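Hypothesis: this fold can be encoded by more than one sequence.
Test: take the C-alpha cells below, design a sequence, compare later.
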C-alpha cells in the first residue's frame, strides 16, 4: 500500500477531494517523518509544526464547509531566502540568524492563498552562494541517497526534503543552477522559470538580474502544481512581466495517448555540453535518456552555443558584482547580526560583516567589489555584460533549429561532503546551468537514471516563456519511465 509520504501532489489533491484522508492526517504523518529522519539530513532550518497543524485543521474545516480550492491542505515548505511573516528568515547566514520577517514574499503569499500549508523553512547555502549546501551557518545538508555526500546547492535543503519524502513539493531559487543542480544530485525534478515569470519581491537577493524563484517536486506534474500560483505579474516587482500565465497543470492533463507523443519535437544537442569535464558515467546515462526521447518521437539535432567556459567566467564576474552591491545593506545597524561592543561606526560595520558573513560570501563580495572598482569596471564588468549579450544571442540562434536544448544538468553526480574542493572546482559544477540565467531562459532538470547508485539529471532548456513546453516534455518522459519514482533506501 502506498504511504502518504510517497504520494504525488496530484494524488494528494484527489485523495483530499475523495476524503480518503484529511489534511491533518497527511501533515501529522509528514511532521512525524521529519522528526524521525531529518536529524540525518538537516534539510530544515525552521520547523513550523504548530502553525502547520493549525492550518491543516483549518483546511479540513474549510473543505467541509465547501471550499473548493484543489490545493487546500496540501503540504510544502519554503527555501529560507523567501521572507515569511512571523518566521525566521535567515538565508542560511549568521548575519540574519535573528531576523524574523515582518512580511511575506509575494511567492509565499500566493502559495498560501492557493491553500498550500508550509511546514517550515529549508536549509540553503549562505545567501544562495554555493553548489553543495556546505556554506550554511546551520550546517551542511546531507544527500538522502548517501548521507556522506552533498545534496547540491544552493537549494540543497529543498531538494533533499522532497527526495526524502518530507514534503511533496518545495520552493527554491536559481541564480546559476541552484534549483537544477540539487534536483539532479537528489534525483527529483526542478524548474527555473523565465526571468520575470515569478515575482522576486521578498526574496533575499543574491544577484538581482539572475535570481528567479522556482519549484521542486518528484515529477514535472508536481512542479506544475506549485508553479501555478507562483507565476504572474506583481506590481511590487518591476522586473516581473505583465504577460498572461498558463494553467501548467491543465496543459499536462490534456495530452492524448500516442506511441510517439513527442513526434515533431526537435531537441538540440551542443557538443560543448559533452566535452572535457563531463564524467563518463554521467554522459552514458544522459545519452541513454536522449535515446529514450528519440524512441518517444523526438528528433535530435546538433546546435552551437557559447563555450561553457566563457559562460562560466562571465557569470563569476557579474554575479559577485551584483552580490557586493546587494549585500551592502547588511551592516549591523538596521536589522540582523550586530557585533558586540563596537568602538565606533567603522568598527561596527567591519566586525558585524566579517563575523556575520561566511567565507564564501566574503569571497564573492570581494570579487564583486574588485570588478566594480575604478580602473577595473571597464576591463571586467562592462566586458562581461557585452559577453552576456553574445550568450543570449547564441541561444536565440540555436533555437532557430530546435525547440528545446538538452544537456547534462551537472558534470558529475553528488560528491562527498568535506571533499575540500577548491572554489574554482566547485564553480565548474555550474558549467551547464549558468548560461540559462545569463540569458533569462527557463530550464528544467529531471532524473534519468543513476551512475554508481547516485542520481543523474538531464537539463531541458526552453525559449523564453516556454515553461509549459518544458514541463510537458518532461511529463511525457516520466509517463514512460520510472526514474522519478525512485527513493533512497534510507527514506523509503
Amino acid at each position: 500500500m502506498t504511504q502518504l509520504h510517497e504520494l504525488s501532489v496530484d494524488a494528494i489533491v484527489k485523495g483530499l477531494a475523495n476524503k480518503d484522508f484529511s489534511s491533518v492526517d497527511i501533515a501529522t504523518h509528514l511532521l512525524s517523518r521529519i522528526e524521525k529522519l531529518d536529524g540525518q539530513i538537516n534539510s530544515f532550518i525552521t520547523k513550523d509544526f504548530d502553525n502547520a497543524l493549525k492550518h491543516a485543521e483549518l483546511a479540513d474545516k474549510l473543505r467541509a464547509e465547501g471550499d473548493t480550492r484543489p490545493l487546500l491542505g496540501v503540504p510544502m515548505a519554503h527555501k529560507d531566502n523567501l521572507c515569511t511573516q512571523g518566521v525566521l528568515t535567515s538565508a542560511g547566514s549568521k548575519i540574519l540568524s535573528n531576523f524574523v520577517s515582518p512580511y511575506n514574499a509575494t511567492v509565499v503569499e500566493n502559495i498560501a492563498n492557493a491553500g498550500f500549508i508550509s511546514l517550515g523553512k529549508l536549509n540553503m547555502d549562505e545567501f544562495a552562494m554555493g553548489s553543495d549546501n556546505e556554506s550554511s551557518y546551520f550546517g551542511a545538508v546531507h544527500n538522502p541517497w548517501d548521507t556522506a555526500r552533498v545534496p547540491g546547492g544552493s537549494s540543497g535543503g529543498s531538494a533533499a526534503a522532497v527526495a526524502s519524502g518530507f514534503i511533496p513539493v518545495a520552493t527554491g531559487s536559481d541564480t546559476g543552477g541552484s534549483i537544477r543542480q540539487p534536483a539532479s544530485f537528489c534525483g527529483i525534478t526542478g524548474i527555473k522559470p523565465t526571468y520575470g515569470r515569478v515575482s522576486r519581491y521578498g526574496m533575499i537577493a543574491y544577484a538581482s538580474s539572475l535570481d528567479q524563484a522556482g519549484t521542486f517536486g518528484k515529477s514535472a506534474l508536481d512542479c506544475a502544481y506549485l508553479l501555478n500560483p507562483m507565476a504572474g505579474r506583481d506590481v511590487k516587482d518591476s522586473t516581473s512581466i505583465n504577460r498572461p500565465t498558463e494553467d501548467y497543470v491543465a496543459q499536462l492533463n490534456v495530452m492524448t495517448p500516442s506511441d510517439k507523443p513527442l513526434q515533431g519535437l526537435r531537441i538540440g544537442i551542443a557538443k560543448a555540453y559533452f566535452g572535457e569535464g563531463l564524467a563518463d558515467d554521467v554522459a552514458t546515462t544522459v545519452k541513454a535518456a536522449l535515446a529514450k526521447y528519440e524512441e518517444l518521437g523526438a528528433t535530435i539535432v546538433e546546435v552551437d552555443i557559447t563555450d561553457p567556459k566563457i559562460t562560466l567566467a562571465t557569470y563569476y564576474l557579474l554575479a559577485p558584482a551584483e552580490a557586493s552591491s546587494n549585500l551592502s545593506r547588511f551592516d549591523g545597524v538596521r536589522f540582523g547580526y550586530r557585533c558586540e561592543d563596537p568602538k565606533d561606526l567603522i568598527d561596527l560595520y567591519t566586525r558585524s560583516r566579517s563575523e556575520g558573513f561566511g567565507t564564501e560570501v566574503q569571497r564573492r563580495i570581494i570579487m564583486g567589489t574588485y570588478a566594480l572598482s575604478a580602473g577595473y569596471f571597464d576591463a571586467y564588468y562592462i566586458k562581461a555584460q557585452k559577453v552576456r549579450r553574445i550568450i543570449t544571442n547564441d541561444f536565440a540562434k540555436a533555437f532557430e533549429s530546435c525547440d528545446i536544448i538538452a544537456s547534462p544538468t551537472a558534470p558529475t553526480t553528488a560528491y562527498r561532503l568535506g571533499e575540500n574542493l577548491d572554489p574554482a572546482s566547485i564553480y565548474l559544477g555550474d558549467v551547464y546551468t549558468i548560461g540559462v540565467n545569463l540569458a533569462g531562459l527557463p530550464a528544467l532538470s529531471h532524473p534519468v537514471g543513476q551512475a554508481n547508485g547516485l542520481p543523474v539529471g538531464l537539463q531541458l532548456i526552453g525559449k523564453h516563456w516556454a515553461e509549459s513546453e518544458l514541463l510537458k516534455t518532461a511529463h511525457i518522459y516520466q509517463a514512460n519511465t520510472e526514474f522519478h519514482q525512485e527513493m533512497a533506501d534510507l527514506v523509503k
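The chain has a mean pLDDT of 96. The CA atoms of residues 14 and 20 lie 9 Å apart.
Hypothesis status: open.
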